[in-house]
Design brief:
alpha+beta; N-terminal domain of TfIIb; 5-stranded antiparallel beta sheet; about 25% strand; UPF0434 protein CWI83_01155; Trm112-like
Length: about 70
């Protein structure tokens, strides 16, 4: 399973309201905000869009992610 495209189209970063990129192949799956450099975990196909659950990404980590 994965997050439905219709849901992904309306999800936004809770901090900056920017677009999120879904990395379903990552372990664990994640939604990435490139603007805030945050990674939000996706557990059992449920996005955890709370700032306390987010992990800050370095520039190097962001550059390694697919576009």
């Amino acid at each position: 399973m994965s997050i439905e495209p219709e849901l992904l189209a309306i999800l936004a970063c809770p901090q900056c309201k920017g677009k999120l990129v879904y990395l379903k192949q990552a372990e664990p799956a994640a939604l990435i905000c490139r603007g805030c450099q945050l990674s939000f975990p996706v557990e059992n196909d449920i996005p955890q869009l709370i700032l306390t659950a987010a992990t800050e990404l370095s520039r190097a980590e962001l550059e390694q992610l697919p576009s």
